[in-house]
Design a protein that fits this description.
The structure is a single chain. This protein is of the alpha/beta class. The protein has three domains: 106 residues, Diphthamide synthesis DPH1/DPH2 domain 1 (Rossmann fold, 3-Layer(aba) Sandwich); 111 residues, Diphthamide synthesis DPH1/DPH2 domain 2 (Rossmann fold, 3-Layer(aba) Sandwich), CATH 3.40.50; 100 residues, Diphthamide synthesis DPH1/DPH2 domain 3 (Rossmann fold, 3-Layer(aba) Sandwich), CATH 3.40.50. It contains ten helices and 15 strands. The strands form three sheets. The protein has a six-stranded mixed sheet with strand order 1-2-6-5-3-4, covered by helices on one side. α4 links the parallel β7 and β8. The chain is flat, with a radius of gyration of 21 Å. It binds iron/sulfur cluster. Iron/sulfur cluster binds next to loops. Iron/sulfur cluster (SF4) binds next to loops.
């Protein structure tokens, strides 16, 4: 994949995309003659961050500052307050989110992995009980496998579907922790999904989002994991919803990060809660810290920021935290079944 420009929200500065660090990125940065670059790296790459900043400084000839706040997605790039002098941002490890407006020209370095031994991966899949009609979903780092792996699986008798998601996804078949619309687009046509990437974050999100078994292929280890028990996941959430049906005092969590800010949805939820006789307070923050919710006279929360806060980090919070669809279930405005993932569109 060569560098390309991805169109973002109207009036947004451009997003340039690079598969990995290298001379192409350096040349594109030099051409802009930036006054200052703000470099943002995900937690897994922090150890190398200072070396990367030094290289950029030397090769581009501009001042470079490092954004220190942990970043979890392309939804929370450095704000103006965090890097007031920077006129260019370099964001590592994420694809742009096309419908999120940027603050400054931003270079996304997706840190793509080379496809490797695709035939061996396809053999591993074929040797398991993965159903033959499958949807392929990949993390950004492994998207270069999409075409070759789909072809290798088709060669072994699989019917492989690649879905195109909504405007929050830059690529077909892409996984994003808050948006699996690429999978939803083909869910009716497949018996199961094959997620390609590392870790449990995306298989878990996919399991919530689609009512199909999700197999996980780790292309770095050439290892495949069987599906997560979706029924158990959903039942746990439904029990949580049932436990707060009578809660009177709700906090509605709203993030100011560009790509996590659902203020209109939060206000609509507040109005729905009040119409049903509940108190509902809007609580505003940029990055949510569980300690900031301690000691409040509230019974439960509904989170409109990153959907994964409620689903993955619930045990860090002093009171139950629901997603917006779960909150509507608790109010009796949506049925418990079918379970609805909080897709961030
Ligand atoms: S909202 Fe959450 S899941 Fe979505 S991109 Fe941001 S950090 Fe990732």
């Amino acid at each position: 994949m060569a560098a390309e420009t991805i169109s973002t929200a109207p009036q947004s500065p451009p997003a340039r995309v690079f598969p990995r660090l290298g001379p192409e990125l350096t040349a594109a940065l030099r051409a802009l003659t930036p006054r200052e670059i703000v470099l943002q790296v995900p937690a897994g790459l922090v150890r190398d961050a200072h070396g990367m900043a030094a290289r950029l400084r030397e090769e581009v000839g501009s001042s470079v500052v490092l954004a220190v706040r942990p970043c979890f997605g392309a939804c929370d790039f450095p704000s103006r307050d965090e890097a007031p002098r920077a006129d260019v941002a370099v964001v590592l490890g994420h694809a742009p989110i096309p419908n999120v407006a940027l603050l400054r020209p931003t270079f996304f370095v997706e840190m793509r992995e080379p496809p490797g031994d695709v035939e061996r991966l396809a053999e591993t899949v074929a040797a398991t009980a993965v159903p033959r009609r499958i949807g392929l979903v990949l993390s950004v780092q492994h998207l270069d496998l999409t075409g070759p792996l789909a072809a290798a699986l088709a060669h072994r008798g699989f019917d492989v579907r690649l879905g195109r998601g909504d405007r929050r996804l830059a690529y077909a078949a892409q996984a994003l922790g808050c948006n699996y619309t690429s999978a939803e687009a083909v869910a009716a046509d497949v018996e199961a999904f094959l997620f390609v990437g590392t870790g449990r974050f995306h298989p878990l999100g996919l399991a919530f989002a689609v009512d199909r078994p999700v197999w996980s292929l780790d292309p770095l280890r050439n290892a495949i994991d069987p599906p997560i028990d979706r029924g158990a996941l959903v039942r746990r959430r439904q029990l949580l919803v049932a436990s707060v049906r009578d809660a009177r005092r709700w906090g509605i969590l709203v993030s100011t990060f560009a790509g996590q800010n659902r203020s209109p949805a939060a206000r609509a939820l507040q109005a729905r809660a009040q119409a049903r006789g509940r108190d509902a307070e809007l609580l505003v923050f940029d990055r949510l810290d569980p300690r900031d919710l301690e000691g409040r006279a509230l019974d439960a929360y509904v989170n409109t920021a990153c959907p994964r806060i409620a689903l993955d980090d619930a045990s860090n919070y002093p009171k139950p935290v629901l997603t917006p669809p779960e909150f509507l279930m608790a109010l009796g405005e949506l049925p418990l079944e079918p379970y609805r993932f909080d897709t961030y569109h």
